[in-house]
Amino acid sequence: MSTFKPELKKYELPPLPYNYDALEPYISKDIMDLHYNVHHKGYVNGANAAIDKIEKIFKGEVKDHDWAGVVRNFVFNSNGARLHNVFWQNLGSPGSKGGGKPGGKLGDLIDKQFGGFDKFKQVYTDVMRSLTGSGWTIMYYEKDLGRLVFTTVENHFINHIVDLPIVILLDQWEHAYYLQYKTNRNAYIDAWWNVVNWDDAEKRLQKHL
Ligand code: MN
């Protein structure tokens, strides 16, 4: 009989950094309420349930398990929890914390790499529009080469999410916009430019320069 008692830390749902109506009119209060309290909380709970199962497997209490399924379930939910943690911080009230153009190092990098914000906005919008189905568009910093990189992520699956130097990201699951924008996902993508928090993006970039 094994006496090993694993102590695996659990995920927590961090508080939303603003009120549910803070991003209106671009993202409605009802969407924020459901998105945070149902969807984000669901990923946190799902990740913790996956950890409970892994603990039981370690203890020998679950004999008949499918590691591929266990790992897939853990990755799906834990990445979901982590991506939403960044997503809320990465947004801000239009006109005060959200929208406008980035300054600082990020603004310089965008100017150098894209020849100005307008060109960057056009290209990044095209990338966001190119994602079909549920997923995320992420811009991260490729540190060794000193450049910004765009990627699209299906569902929540991406390797090394813990260390990915995310600068900005957009949740493009239907639950993020359907209540307000219905099938017009491009309108949601266009609206996002009014609530993206460039100060948060700059802070994220600065951590990796
Ligand atoms: Mn979501």
UniProtKB/TrEMBL annotation:
Residues 10-91 form the Manganese/iron superoxide dismutase N-terminal domain. It is an enzyme of class 1 (oxidoreductase). Signal peptide: none annotated. Its EC number is 1.15.1.1. Pfam families: Sod_Fe_C (PF02777), Sod_Fe_N (PF00081). Keywords: Metal-binding, Oxidoreductase. Residues 103-204 form the Manganese/iron superoxide dismutase C-terminal domain. Mn(2+) binds at H35, H84, D171, H175. InterPro entries: Fe/Mn_Superoxide_Dismutase, Mn/Fe_SOD, Mn/Fe_SOD_BS, Mn/Fe_SOD_C, Mn/Fe_SOD_N, Mn/Fe_SOD_N_sf, SOD_C_sf. GO terms for molecular function: metal ion binding; superoxide dismutase activity. It catalyses: 2 superoxide + 2 H(+) = H2O2 + O2. SUPFAM superfamilies: Fe,Mn superoxide dismutase (SOD), C-terminal domain, Fe,Mn superoxide dismutase (SOD), N-terminal domain. Belongs to the iron/manganese superoxide dismutase family. Destroys radicals which are normally produced within the cells and which are toxic to biological systems. This is Superoxide dismutase. It comes from Candidatus Marsarchaeota G2 archaeon ECH_B_2.
